[in-house]
Amino acid sequence: VQLVESGGGLVQPGGSLRLSCVASGFTSSSFVMRWYRRVPGQEREFVARIENDGGETAYGDSAMGRFTISRDDNKNTAYLQMNSLKPGDTSRYYCNAYRRSDRTSYWGQGTQVTVSS
Q1: Which of 85, 78, 100 is nearest to 34 (CA)?
Q2: For 19-72, how does the pLDDT look when each residue is reduced to its tens digit (9 = 90+)?
């Protein structure tokens, strides 16, 4: 079972990045897919989630209006499109797969996003 994030990097303020989260060893279509971020020394922050049943989405305050979460269950992949990035978005971004029926939860190792000029 594995979640692997990619797509992070260094971007200038106002720029965009698209993060990907590829699931292996399980079928992501049964899981809610979520993105979190965490800066060392701070609490983990919820960024976005997408339901597996119907695709309903929800966003944290910092992501609202700028980030878009999506999924492609044929590819066992979730995405986070991040636009209008700010220095405050600098963080390590983690993908989480969560199955509500039994509370099974998987985490990736994260991908670093740095927003700086």
Answers
A1: 78
A2: 999 999 998 999 999 999 999 999 999 999 999 988 899 999 999 999 999 999
The per-residue b/e assignment along 54-88, b for 16 or more CB within 10 angstroms, e otherwise, is eeeeebeebbeeebbbebebeebbbbbebeebeee
Is the Cα torsion angle 7, 61, 101, 74 positive or negative in sign? negative
Q: In this structure, are residues 17 and 7 in contact, taking their beta carbons and an 8 Å threshold?
A: yes
pLDDT of residue 55: 87
